[in-house]
Each structure stands twice: as C-alpha cells, then as structure tokens.
Amino acid sequence: MKNTSKNTSLIKTEAKRLGFLSCGISKAEFLEEEAPRLENWLNNNMNGEMSYMENHFDKRLDPTILVPGSKSVISLLLNYYPSQRQPSDTYKISKYAYGTDYHFIIKDKLKQLMQFISEEIGEVHGRAFVDSAPVLDKAWAAKSGLGWIGKHSLMLTKNVGSFFFVAELIVDMELEYDTPVTDHCGTCTACIDACPTQAIVSDKVVDGSKCISYYTIELKNEIPTSEKGKFEDWIFGCDICQDVCPWNRFSKPHNQPLFNPYPEMLSMTKNDWEEITEEVFQKIFKKSAVKRTKFSGLTRNINFVKD
C-alpha cells in the first residue's frame, strides 16, 4: 500500500514536470455506464461516415482487453489554449490545430513518462494513447477526477475550462485511484443554444454526423447543401460550443512553443484563404493537424462557406 501511494505521487509529480495540466488515475475495468450510451449513439448513426467508431466495441469499453494485464488508466490533460487568435473577419480553424500536430507532441511526452516509470519504479508494461485508438478518453478522464463531461460532451474543469487534449497510459501496475468530481454545468445551455447545426441533441450527446468538425474534417464526400450558411466561417473544426462556455473564461494560454500558431496562418485574410495554393498549404500546414483534411478537403470547405 505504501509503494502504491509513493508510485502514484511519483507519476503525478513527473506528469506535472513534463507540462501536463493534470494527471488522474482510475482502475482499469469495464466501463459499465458508457456501454449503453455508446451502443445507442452508434445505433442512431451519430457517427456518420466514421465507421471506425463501430470497430472494437469491447476494447473501447474494457482496457483489460485492449491492454492485457492492465490494472490502471493514467489520464492526462495538456493545455492548448492560444495566447494569439485569428482575426474575427477571416475563415476560422479550430484552435487545437494552430500549431504542430498534437499527436507528435503528446506521444513524445507519454513516452518520456513511461520511461520515467520504468526507471524509477521498475518494469512496467503498458501502452500510450492519444485519441487514435479505441479508448474512451473523456470517460476515463472523468472517472479519474480530472473534470466532468459537459453538455457539449467535452471535458470541463472549473480551473481552466475545456481547451485541452486528453491522453492516457494504460499500465499493468496498481496505483491509488482518484474519484470523479461533480458536474458544474447546472441549468446552463449556452453550448446547446449556440450550435448552428443543432448537433448537441441532448445533455452530453452530440450527433457527430451534424457537427461542423465532422463536416470539415471527417466527411470525405460533399457537404450537404442543407447546411449551407450555417458554418459561421469555420473551415477546419469548430470551437463555437467551447467559445460560449462560461467556464472557458478561466482558460489560460499554454506554454508549449510547438502549439504556437504559424505566423503566416494568423495573418491570412479571407482572400488569402480563397487563393491558397497546394504549395502554400503544404508549407504552412506541413506539421499541422490541418493536413488531415488534405488540400482538396480544405478548398472544398472554403468554397462551401464563402458567400
């Protein structure tokens, strides 16, 4: 028991040193409450063309299947709130994509944390995850007390709002487990009221197939004409539900230089976006998450939102 407490403290201290906002730990076990929610969400086709969400149903709900022998889920938050923003009169991309693709940055930090655990605690087996595997990141972060899931289905904390990434290490080591915090959304419906495509269909349930982020990133076909005029100039992702959330008044700028926006991108006018060439796209977004939509996808989005 003494070692469990000491090891937990060591891991949380190192996570802080590596720049993570916070670290919470929960027992690796079947997510009983999430199972019917995920099943209903899929049965109602709220994943749209994201067919990969239907794969590995059991692994999504049970980390001991995903990582055999696992005992603990170490959840981590990393701030990405920028100190500089795009001008209000241009086409917008989601703030998480301003700088270098977060997958590279977080995976590197998780690798360092895993190495630290092996060196300081002993031989520990596990895997690192950054939203690219069948793991319900937000459910684990909430279970480990890092915040609560808001009505917009994103993680929220009283101290810094919601502009952060969620990642985890699933390991075969017993640790001290944290407990969930209470929900602090109350009667507020700011995110539901502000969503221009009515994608937030009920408390904590987002119809992914109606979300602007889905249309501008995940959807490979043409965007339905029924959505014309609803995107409010978003061409990659969307931050509307986060921007209107009262808890994001407490967002503080990150201190990760690689998340800083590309200067060229910050100064782009609507005209610059409309005239963007593939060469400029490759130069500005060389290491950015924006590359996911490819040049063809970005120009499709620009043409869809322009007057």
TrEMBL record:
Subcellular location: Cytoplasm
UniProt-listed InterPro entries: 4Fe4S_Fe-S-bd, 4Fe4S_Fe_S_CS, QueG, QueG_DUF1730
UniProt xrefs under SUPFAM superfamilies: alpha-helical ferredoxin
Record keywords, A-Z: 4Fe-4S, Cobalamin, Cobalt, Cytoplasm, Iron, Iron-sulfur, Metal-binding, Oxidoreductase, Queuosine biosynthesis, tRNA processing
Names of required cofactors: [4Fe-4S] cluster; cob(II)alamin
Pathway of action: tRNA modification; tRNA-queuosine biosynthesis
Family matches, as Pfam families: Fer4_16, QueG_DUF1730
Cofactor note: Binds 2 [4Fe-4S] clusters per monomer.
HAMAP family: QueG (MF_00916)
Name the UniProt record assigns to this protein: Epoxyqueuosine reductase
Organism: Aequorivita marisscotiae
